Amino acid sequence: MPQAGLSRAARILVALSIAFGLSYIPVLGLSWSSDIGTVWKGAGVALLAVAAAVEARGRDGWLLASMLALGALGDVLLEIAGLTAGALAFMAAHIVAITLYLANRRPALAPSQLILALAVVPLGTFIAWSLPADRAQAGGVGLYALFVAAMAGAAWASRFPRLRTGIGAMMFLVSDLLIFARMGAFEGAIWIGTAIWLLYYLGQLLIFLGVARSLTASIGG
Questions:
Q1: Are 65 and 53 in contact (CB under 8 A)?
Q2: What's the pLDDT tens digit per position in 58-88?
Q3: CB 124 within 8 A of CB 182
């Protein structure tokens, strides 16, 4: 995974993050305590947040660090406090992310890119709303999905590289849609937990790399 432009300390933190993030699923299969699993889960994105803080040189750098820290908090809260607490932390992370991306809008967007950035919000929200088998959950799911879909659309319209930040944000959205699909048609699918985690973690990693390297290049330039 390219890390050029980052400080040595940040590169070490990213390497540790990758080690925790990619090993989390195998760790779940071990007979360890749930506390170790929770710490392991939170460590992947938490280390990215620390790396972002190490690299931060201004408002945008600290927004990135805050967004990732709130994501790591959400990972942990999902395990120790339940879905609502975790979702609230992630919603806060999405608000911070949207603030970052809108402050770094591309000067101009091709019509097709603008359509995608705008369309992902209603489409992502509607798909999420339609997925839970228990329709009493659909409203809350749709509300949460509005935030994550808006984050993905804002990332796609930002100046940060789409092959990292844009794709990473879309992977984050797909990960959440799979969570909601597990509440319906994909309930019990043996592959879905692994897919959810890898899309989420690798999405966060790509977001970090795209934003952090762009901010570093801007300072260097």
A1: yes
A2: 999 999 999 999 999 999 999 999 999 999 9
A3: no
